Amino acid sequence: MSDIQELADGTRIIWAPIVRPKRFAFLTQILGELLLTAGVVLMLFVGYKTLFQDNLVGNQQSDFAKTYTERDGFVALDAVSKDADIFARMYVPRFGESWTRLVAEGTRWHPVLNEIGIGHYVNTVMPGEVGNFAIAAHRRGFGGAFRDIDKLTTGDRVYIETKDTWFIFKFLETEVVLPTDVGVIAPVPEKLDGSKPGSRYLTMTSCTPIFVNTERIISWFELEQSQSTAEGMPRDLKIILGSR
């Protein structure tokens, strides 16, 4: 029952009864708060671990690519025949001066995308050939080789070093498409403004948005020039990399 207090002037104050929580309800509340706290801590841990491991694996892939210096280690373009054949090294200055990755045949997660870094769609042409040299890499997780693909812009170049030839591609356009839009890696890429038969394209593909992966982000390039590896690294790339 409520407590009733009557003041000297006749005013009556009715005090609401104190309702003590049942023991089970109290324990449930405490458990709920503990679970909520644990969930927040777990999310922070997963986020930290993901970012930390991403950078760690990315640095490992980049270091591996830099030290892959024996030209005989690259499979000749006309001899690539099986998954994980490494046939090229790729430089994208927009991704950072220290960024470089190896390119291997196939787009399987293991061992190509997860360990090596970049994979070549087997039904597309090799770099320098007429058609579309299409490649894929992760944006987040396992090094996130194409994490900054959305930052590519006019004036950017991609450099592909193979056993015998350097290929230099200039940036054309970036588009976000549905996973079903497979025509973006066709010999004459669909959705690319001004695409035409007889051209030599490079198409970079990855999942987007990061962590959601419901769509695909596509960046197209066109071959600008090529030169023999005997001539050394292209001069403009050498300047960017500080003559390393």
Seen as an oligomer or otherwise, the chain set is single chain
> How do the helices and strands follow one another from N- to C-terminus?
EEHEEHEEEEEEH
Would you tell me the structural class of the helices and strands?
alpha+beta
Spans with pLDDT under 50 lasting ≥5 residues?
none
Q: What's the rounded overall pLDDT mean?
A: 88
The largest β sheet comes out as:
8 strands, mixed, barrel
The number of helical elements comes to 3
- Main sheet: strand order: 3-4-5-6-9-10-8-7
Give the amount of beta strand, in percent: 25-35%
Please provide the count of β strands.
10
Quick tags:
single chain, 244 residues, alpha+beta, 8-stranded mixed β-barrel, two-stranded antiparallel sheet, 3 helices
